[in-house]
Every structure is written in structure tokens, then in C-alpha cells.
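re: ur question from yesterday

yeah so i grabbed the chain u mentioned. its 86 aa long if i counted rite. heres the sequnce exactly as i have it in my notes:
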Amino acid sequence: MITAIWAVFVADFALKLWLAPRKLRFLRSHWLQLLGLLAPTLRLLSFLRLARLGRVLSAARVLSASSAPSAPPGSWCVAEWPTSRG
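ran it thru and got these C-alpha cells back, copy pasting raw so excuse formatting
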């Protein structure tokens, strides 16, 4: 429903721009309206970018888990921190 309302505003702006004799002057005088019309689009693009990032991170996690060397079952890995004794 919200997308339909937004589409009506975009169509109205596009029609006014198309009918304007001086298009650049129209854009200069209606820049705030253009910005308001672009805001939902930019929000959608940022959401898509986050979704793509999520897929990339998920794929990287799967790849790193499948290529990581694993210890034999039942073994323990103990790391010693170097100590300086003076």
C-alpha cells in the first residue's frame, strides 16, 4: 500500500518534470521534493546491501568451517603463553 502511494508521488513528480519547459530549473526549485522521493529508494538499496553482506558473511563462515583443520576426536589443544623470566 505504501509503495503504491510512493509510486503516485513519483509519477506526479516525473510528469511535472516532463512538462517543465526548463527541466534543470525545475529540479533546482524542487530539490527537496526530489530528495524526499529518493529517500525510500536509498533505504531499500541500503537494505539490499546489508542482505548481500549477510549472504557473503554466511558463505565465508561455511567456507572457513569446511577448510579449517580439525583436531582428532578426543584430543585437547593447549597453548602456552610465553613468559619472560628475568
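noticed a couple things. The CA atoms of residues 50 and 56 lie 10 Å apart. also Residues 2-65 form one domain.
anyway ttyl
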